[in-house]
Every structure is written in C-alpha cells, then in structure tokens.
Design a protein that fits this description.
3 helices, 24% helix, four-stranded antiparallel sheet, 8 strands
C-alpha cells in the first residue's frame, strides 16, 4: 500500500487526460491501476466500475465507515462507478479528478455520491 501511495504522490501536478495511463497524464482509474501495479497488486482494468467489481469479486470491499489509508474510494452506485481515488487520510483522497484539474490531494467531494463500500486492495 505504501508503494502505491508513493507512486501516486509522484504524479501530483500531472495533467488529467480521459483515458490517460501515464507517464505524465492520467485519468482516475489509470492512476489507481498504475499505483497499485507499482506495488505488484492487480485491482482491475482501466475502469472505475471494473475496479469496484474486481474488489467485490476478491472479497475486498469494506464499509466506507471503516475506510483506511490506501483504500480505493468510489463514486457512483448501482453497478456504475464514475470515479475512483486513493484515500490518504483526514477525509482526503489522492485523485486524477477531471479536465483542467491536475492530479491532487483533495477533500472528498460530493460525499452523497460516494459508494457505501471502499476497496481494500491489500491487508
């Protein structure tokens, strides 16, 4: 988990690009996939929905109320997830947010859209 977070931190300030998977431009699931791949952990394909479903199929979903540093936070629901980020503590996530916004650490936004479960890729 620390390796994944360290990798993601190295991307801070990189630009957002829909479909981006590095090395200098990312979208949300491209960043999370690459960060955990750097740690040797497969979390799913380049898709927030697929990453959620991969965590579910591996029995790695945990209630959001028990979120820990390194967990994957998802936005959406009903089988359709439109955003994923890495929880870094203190109510903040490391994310590749959207067009015009670089990779950043930011307070969890739109909490009403946050999924009830987070993915815990390790541990």
């Amino acid at each position: 988990m620390q390796t994944a977070i360290a990798f993601a931190r190295q991307q801070l300030g990189d630009r957002y690009l829909l479909g981006g998977s590095g090395p200098d431009a990312w979208d949300c699931s491209g960043l999370t996939k690459a960060a955990y791949a750097a740690a040797g952990v497969y979390i799913g394909t380049h898709s927030a929905t697929n990453q959620y479903n991969t965590m579910a199929s591996q029995g790695r979903l945990v209630s959001f109320s028990n979120v820990q540093v390194g967990d994957l936070v998802f936005w959406g629901g009903g089988g359709d997830y439109y955003h994923v980020a890495i929880y870094v503590g203190g109510g903040q996530v490391l994310e590749a947010p959207d067009v015009g916004k670089p990779v950043r650490i930011h307070a969890i936004w739109s909490p009403g859209d946050v999924a009830s479960y987070v993915g815990r890729p390790t541990g």
